[in-house]
Specification:
By secondary structure, the chain is mainly alpha-helical. The protein contains 16 helices and two strands.
């Protein structure tokens, strides 16, 4: 009996769910759970739960901080506890009763960022899930850290006429409602300090536009709006200046650590794939090969005991790197490396007179290996063509995911083919003049 195809029971934006042919019974909850938990959607839901719990916890700690502030104030009168001295307040204007302006800027920029990331920036629903999953994980972690700072230290309110949020004696439902109101700005806590949540949201929006927007003018507009919002936070006395400064650097540090760990994980996967491409053999032992890989990796990076190695592995999982990086991806990278090495060896031995494969990887590899020390030996028209190829390739790298991929791919093929024809014609001319070694050295400098 021939192999039977699996039964497709779900097909959507986040992938497909196919049961093998040997499932003749109705799938159980364990079967569905095993498949779903390895998909993008599960990671997205998990990150959303992480953010919601952290936000509610942070709001609860805000109310408890207000209660401690009232309890330890002189005669339990919050108005008798003056604000801390802030040097920037002495030179900045005070916008009294204008706290709503900060909410307008923060919520407005947040809404625009969410809409643009959903419908205009990300090319697919999987990419959108990746973007928002990263936001949820990082923002949730920042909320947990902010809840910790509010728990250990209580700073006085920034103005004396603040009404503290007291949830003591509230039922669970009333306390939950008050926490939700504080999240969306309906209720203002007095001692919601240490580092600014409004600035944290503004910096998060800035980082999204910085990383994912390919149109720089839009990003610069977002930077300007975020700067105005940060100044309004200080001018309205919503937070101390130190709260704003700490929020900017803590948010920047969180994003830097997250993507640095992700980059380390990708580099380790690439390094392992590179070594497997060189050392794999049918007779090799997996554990012995892994010891060799790890020894060579440590010789290069020299970190005998990797700092936060568990954090790197955790972020790689939370980001879904294991879903995007599989054996097929590693095999494709090894094949590209081997093809590139063969092309380099062939180019060093003879002038290629055949038509090369005109794809994006070929053009990128040629431009990356191109060294400026060989540009002086090329003719005027060759230089113009090379400069045009470089500029066009950089432009395509920024816009090919926005515009039609087929059109940009055809333009890349046209430029690559034209460059190859010019160099081949130059080679034939050089042969007739008896200067073939000279041109061969030019070609070698071009592709190395």
């Amino acid at each position: 009996m021939g192999n039977r195809q699996g039964k497709l029971i779900y097909q959507g934006a986040f992938g497909s769910l196919t049961l093998p042919h040997y499932y003749v019974r109705r799938p159980t909850k364990e079967d569905i759970w095993r498949v779903i938990r390895s998909r993008e959607l599960f990671r997205l839901i998990l990150s959303a739960i992480w953010l919601i719990i952290a936000g509610l916890l942070c709001s609860w700690t805000q109310s408890k901080s207000d209660e401690r502030w009232v309890l330890h104030a002189p005669n339990q009168d919050p108005r008798a506890s003056p604000p801390l001295y802030d040097s920037l307040w002495d030179v900045s204007p005070y916008l009294e009763n204008k706290l709503y302006l900060t909410d307008v800027f923060v919520m407005g920029l947040l809404g625009v960022t969410v809409v643009c990331m959903l419908f205009f920036v990300a090319p697919s629903w999987v990419k959108r899930a990746i973007i928002f999953r990263r936001i949820f994980w990082i923002m949730g972690s920042l909320y947990w850290y902010r809840a910790l700072t509010l728990t250990v230290t209580t700073l006085p309110a920034t103005h004396n006429d603040c009404a503290p949020v007291i949830t003591q004696g509230f039922s669970f439902g009333e306390a939950l409602k008050a926490s939700i109101d504080m999240i969306f700005g309906g209720v203002k806590a007095c001692t919601d300090n240490i580092f600014s949540g409004h600035t944290m949201f503004l910096m998060t929006c800035v980082f999204q536009w910085r990383m994912y927007c390919r149109f720089r003018p839009f990003a610069w507009i977002v930077y300007a709006v975020a700067l105005v919002g940060i100044l309004l936070i200080d001018f309205t006395r919503l937070h101390y200046t130190v709260d704003i400064v700490l929020a900017m650097f803590i948010t920047w540090g969180a994003y830097t650590i997250y993507f640095a760990c992700l980059n380390i994980a990708v580099q380790r996967l690439q390094f392992d794939g590179h070594l497997r491409g060189h050392y794999d053999s049918p007779m090799g032992h997996p554990e012995a090969r892994w010891d060799k890989y790890n020894a060579e990796f440590q010789d290069i990076i020299y970190i005998p005991r990797m700092l936060n190695s568990g954090l790197v592995a955790s972020i790689a999982y939370l980001d879904g790197l294991d879903l995007r990086w599989n054996e097929e991806t590693a095999q494709a990278l090894r094949q590209d490396h081997q093809d590139l090495q063969k092309q380099r060896d062939r180019s060093e031995s003879q002038i290629p007179l055949h038509q090369p494969s005109a794809d994006m990887s070929g053009v990128s590899s040629m431009l990356i290996m191109f060294q400026l020390r060989g540009i002086q030996s090329l003719g005027k028209h060759e230089r113009i063509l090379l400069y045009g190829t470089v500029i066009w390739t950089i432009y395509i790298a920024h816009t090919r995911l926005i515009f039609a991929p087929d059109l940009t791919s055809n333009m890349i093929k046209m430029w690559h083919s034209l460059l190859h024809r010019v160099l081949v014609a130059k080679a034939r001319t050089a042969r007739t003049r008896g200067s073939e070694p000279e041109f061969r050295s030019r070609w070698t400098r071009l592709i190395q």
